[in-house]
Amino acid sequence: MMRIGVKQWFASGSPWIWLNGAAVAISVIMVVGLLALIAVRGLGHFWPAAVLQAEVSVSGQPTALIGSVADEEVVSADQLRDSGVILAAGQDSAKRLLIKAGNRDVTGADFVWVLEQDLRDITYPEDIITLERREWGNFYGRVVAVKEAGSVIAQRDSQTDAAIWRLLLQRVERSLAIYDDIYEIEKGAIGQINYGMERLRLRQRGLELKGQLTPVAQAELDAERDLLNQRYEGLQQQLVDLYTAFERDSMIGETMSGQQLEINLSKIVRAFRANAMTGPQKVSFYASKLWEFVSAEPREANTEGGVFPAIFGTVMMVLLMSVMVTPFGVVAAVYLREYARQGPITRIIRIAVNNLAGVPSIVYGVFGLGFFIYFLGGNIDQLFFPEAAPAPTFGTPGLLWASLTLALLTVPVVIVATEEGLSRIPRAVREGSLALGATKAETLWRVVLPMASPAMMTGVILAVARAAGEVAPLMLVGVVKLAPSLPLDGNYPYLHLDQKFMHLGFHIYDVGFQSPNVEAARPLVYATALLLVLVIALLNLSAVAIRNRLREKYKALES
Amino acid sequence: MNDNTPISAPELDFETPALRRNRSLRALKDRFTTVSVGIGGMSVIVAILLIFVYLTYEVVPLFKGADIEPWGNETSFYQVGGNASSLHLSIEEQNEVGFKISSDGEVNFFATENGQIKATDRIDFGTQERISAFALESNVSRLFAVAGDQGTILLAKPEYEITYPDDQRLITPSLQYPYGEEAINLPVAFGTPSLLAVRDAEEDLIIVAANNQHELALIHLTKEENFITEEVELEAELLALPALSSMPFRLLISPDQRWLMAIDKEANLTIIDIRNPDQSSLHAVHKLSANPLSDVQWLLGGTTLTVADIEGAVSQWFMVRDQSNQWSLKHIRDFAPQNGPQQLAMEHRRRGFVTAAEDGKIGFFSASAGVQVHSEKLLEDAIRFVAVSPRANTMLVEDQAGQLSFWKVDNKHPDTSFTALWQKIWYEGYENPEYIWQSSASTNDFEPKYSLMPLAFGTLKAAFYAMLMATPLAICGAIYTAYFMAPAMRRKVKPLIELMEALPTVILGFLAGLWLAPFVETNLASIFTLLFVVPLGTLVFAYLWAQVPKDARWQLPEGWDVMLIIPVVAALAWLSMPISDVIETGFFDGNMRQWVSEDLGINFDQRNALVVGLAMGFAVIPTIFSITEDAIFSVPKHLTQGSLALGATPWQTLTRVVMPTASPGIFSAVMIGMGRAVGETMIVLMATGNTPIMDMNIFEGMRTLAANIAVEMPESEVGSSHFRILFLAALVLFAFTFFVNTLAEVVRQRLRQKYGSL
To answer: Where is A491: in which H helix or E strand?
Structure first.
């Protein structure tokens, strides 16, 4: 066997090749690791974590603790000693657990850090319940009694745990059903009435400004207003009844420290006993949580609940943007490649367009804010919406301007991709068409554009993928942390271009960094990030797939 | 059979009306398409141009000088009140009403436009006294004090009540006595007060008077609110002050009621510490100018003294606290010299002032930047008095003959010269001139600090650390992928890395801020250990692999070595944890983070440049990787094959043939990557503390231009200097990335041509 000397080995250059290989390996590991990190953290959140019960004995004073482990880390002993923790001599490090103990209304904080070594008698009792509430976060503890209209109907002393639990579940289900009705009335019907009232006010003000507010018109407006008011009063009565029914039941819970707490069932979103769940139950729980995440509205300052409005807002914005960007991008590319005289000017324009793709997105945001919102929007308001003044209609960030800004941001992507497609079409094809007597327009429409369609499609999808992930410009031109209503609803004119909207990317920023309860919100941010990554990866992959398919289709022509 | 039918071409009449119509329709459609494509294409291109034009349009007003013109079409002069000279002139907020106190005690409110009197009053001491001294508290409070020649002092202010009868604005002016009409009396022994100063604060009001023997008296008034009438009543206390050696012509009290400044005509300034009014002491004496002075006034905020001498030199001075907590007056800056003695008029809401000279010339100045914004000869006669309106958009000018004239001033952005944006400026309260970005604060008289330097520095710092991480990894990775990797594997690896380019940066930023930053803080040592362990470990492994018998080595197809390296690198990364523990205990007292901040004395922020470098480097890698890979891969194959055929090793071929050919492509890749790093917003926003500091320290954060825009734009007032400076920041970013990208693009096109010829 021949041994290679170090010197000779270095002379061969092979170590450097290996180092280059290591660079690829690092890149690949980082990419995969990042995706795995997001996936694991994002998907893990919805799994019903086991709830532990233990005694924490810090400096000889045992206190009870109920909660689920949210995070863990190893901390060096020095650091702990510095912060005043007493550790055994010779101990190098200790494992620290972040326990989600909930009951924020009692203890003031959702999370506690404890050292694993301080925990005694860890058990996972099946009778511990978790309540997801509309406010104050989760409740962990036990049920003591269930009450109906103030009187106890089931109690721990007289009934088995299982019986109380069943009763509680039934009651929670009932209140959830009522909640749906209330929600429908409040958001749907009453929202509609409010919207109608606002439109009436604007109409009146508009007539007033034009000097056409005749008594007849005024009477007409008043009649309509009365109608709305009557409907509102009817609904209001209905609501009062529903609320009475809604708030009928309550339960008494016992926290880890034995404190008893009355919780009205109307405050409960979900009740479960994580430790008592069987495998399939856990799976179905997981599925329902996941469904809630993508279909429900956020709760508790966006730290709980779902992200549906953000998904909806993102999709709306991206759709509007592609409607705007596609024709313009394609026309510009066709002009540059097919109509404009090729020369230094087109070359300069091409370089400029190419470069615009590299201009920071925030610059587009600044432009959008200044030009679209303050300049265009301000003038539109003056011309068409004088009745709404001084409240701005289009002179404020909104869906239309956000889509327009992103359309401008992504138009270079479409132009570049389309141009590339156009440049690939052989001259012979065009000349053949022209020789057969087709006009230039016909050649373009029947021959060139169909052949370039894969490239156009790719361009649009890449543009959409870029737009879906951009956040910086949107912060200036239209996103909000919490939009009161969706930009598309049942109120005329149905699509509200002037409204602000929620966006997945901004949701990540906002919940992750601006939220008052970052610790509680973090898993949700991971889940949102995962959703966004999936959407964008899907868009990119479909761009590739569509390109390949269409390319196959027109391959015969290309060869 | 009859074969005689003549064979002829089918009768085709191209000139039938239907075909003609069809043809002209088609021609029309063709023309229509040409025109509409032309319009559409041009409009997109114009829209793109518009970005540049619009940003410039918003920025240009920043650098436009000021302008002054008569209020009406031409200057109209008018006289208000009698011939007595003015003690004080001012304009109210809406520019409609002017206010004049004459030396004979007459008070007039008049229409600024034409001098029509709106209300008249008198300063009435209740005795037969003539006004002997006058002092304005500040432009903002409008409160003033007047003293009669027998020592009676009155406090009053002009008040403007705005009502809207019939939807029309109506301003009703009146003279009010906020502390009651009861006069404050100086002791008879003091004699005639010839000079006065007044300063109002939350709880106390201080009046200082000087008599002709240049003795000083301080009246300390404690405010007490009457619980029943809610009127403020004053409790007076008379205190003595050290006597002055010469007769002052100006007495000034700082707003914190700590310093009393007495300035005499010969430019001698005496500073008296009156923080404890009953134990006031002489603090310092300064010479403000070699020449006698013509005017001295506080700048907005009452910190900076603006001094004008009779030769036209204008300078500024303020108190600076040094490290040992000692206050001393410092000469801060000189302005462009003017001609002859100058009168000063201060702006109410900005650190700007106006000079007026005996030759009728007016000068506008911005104090922070120390620049003259504008100069214009307004009148033929000497100007005796100038008053600037609260919004600094009009001014009243009184000439030698007591004639008033009203002027429109267009001076929107005096604070934003090149000096203010890019050079060191000595701001109030700082020990030295510095680069500071601080655009807003809670108080009204806050001095805005608009130095773009810390932001530009932060931008480059973030980009530098990002490139430091990304460039080697991306280029080395691209070399391997393009040149050594098996095609089948390349087809998988390349899209995988390129997928990262599409990953929203908000996700990277969020991970960097919430996951990576704490991770780096606790595992600081392992991050640095990784730097050494991974390359060295890879080399060791590669050497060992070279010792493996050929038969075994050749089991692995050529170009699939990465499959081997990936687990090795992963294992090495894992291994660096325990190794770093050993190193940490051995060299850094067991905790490198603490060692950095305590032993090295370097500030350590959790969200620092290292984290930004890692996260943004990650975002930039795919950009550089992709373009470099393309450049290397498209080096013509016959070049490399020729080199290999001549006996060069693959590595020699790479370094001597492939890299030189591809180097322009690599250059443009790095340029484009840098363009991306410079403009990246979300990662920096989330992964740093966004503090605008100028420090290259890797363990501290920064604030970049882009992040600054994202943070401050939504709160900035439309059309304000701040708003436009943010536009300027955007324009700078735009221009920089555009330039860098164009450079890269041109280089790339050259490269393409070169390949074409090979």
So the answer is: none
